[in-house]
Structures are given as C-alpha cells and as structure tokens.
Write a structure and sequence with these properties.
This protein is mostly beta strands and 155 residues long. The chain has one helix at 11-25; strands spanning 31-32, 37-38, 43-44, 48-50, 55-56, 61-62, 66-68, 73-74, 79-81, 83-85, 90-91, 96-98, 101-102, 107-108, 113-114, 119-120, 125-126, 131-132, 136-138, 143-144, 152-154. The longest helix has 15 residues, at 11-25.
Length: 155
C-alpha cells in the first residue's frame, strides 16, 4: 500500500484526513461553493472549504483548516479554526469552535465556546452562553442548556 492512510473511525483521524485533503484543494485560497456571502470585515484563512449558500457575518475569523457545509450560517464576531462543520449549521454571535466536529443541522447559540476535541451530534442545540470544555461529545438531538466543564459524553 502506498499513499496516506487514516483511521477515520476516530475523530482525530477523521479530522486529519479532511485537513490533508484541504491542503490539496485549498492551499493558498479559499474554495467556496455557489452563493457564499462573506462579510468584507471578516477574515478567511486557507486552507478552507465553504459549501454553497453559506453566510458569514462581520468580524468573524474562519480558518485555518475549516470545512463548512452547505446552507450554514456563521454570525458576527465568531472564531472557527481546525474544525469540520456539516451542512445546515447555525453558529450564533460571538461563538468559538476550536478543533471540533459539528454535525448536521446543529444550532449553536450566542457566546458559546466549544473546546478542542468537541463532537456535537446532528440536530443538537447548544444554548446561548454555554461553555463545553475540551473533549466533550454531545449526542444527536440533545439540547445543552448549561456548561459542561469536564470531559464527558452528554446523552
């Protein structure tokens, strides 16, 4: 066997595989789909892939190493780096996502912090102001209304 191999059954391997592909397709400039709106007061740092029908509001920093799925929204003053965000995700005002995977149709409220190694399952809701420390996993369809300050799986 020649070439790269990643254990994508683990979050770290899945992210690493995506980031290696990003380096190939978006080394020097962002790769974007159709109808992407990025406010001119925001920074987008490659490598990055932004799907179609995505809106990124003012004073937001995206990248490096970020994938944002189709039909997603990122509010003002957000920071997202080294993360994979699936489609139909809403990220509220002044939220931060670092080294994490955010599932499909997740709603992240305002002033939310998702720490390194976070995994948020599809259709989850993270309420305004919630802080999730490093390596917190939230199961699909769950609503988190208070801080999770230790590594755990939220059922």
């Amino acid at each position: 066997h020649e070439g790269l191999w990643f254990d994508v059954g683990k979050v770290e391997g899945y992210m690493l595989a995506n980031f290696k592909v990003l380096e190939t397709v978006s080394r020097d400039k962002p790769l974007t789909g159709k109808n992407v709106e990025i406010n001119s007061a925001s920074k987008v740092l490659p490598p990055i892939l932004i799907g179609g029908e995505v809106e990124i509001e003012a004073q937001t920093k995206i990248g490096p190493y970020v994938v944002i799925g189709n039909n997603s929204f990122v509010g003002e003053k957000c920071k997202i780096d080294h993360s994979i965000i699936f489609e139909k995700v809403r990220v509220g005002f002044n939220s931060s996502i670092v080294h994490s995977v955010i599932g499909e149709s997740v709603n992240i409220g305002q002033k939310v912090r998702v720490g390194k190694g976070g995994v948020i399952g599809d259709y989850a809701i993270i309420s305004n102001g919630v802080r999730l420390v490093n390596q917190v996993s939230v199961c699909p369809y769950r609503e988190v209304t208070s801080h999770i300050l230790r590594r755990q799986i939220y059922h």
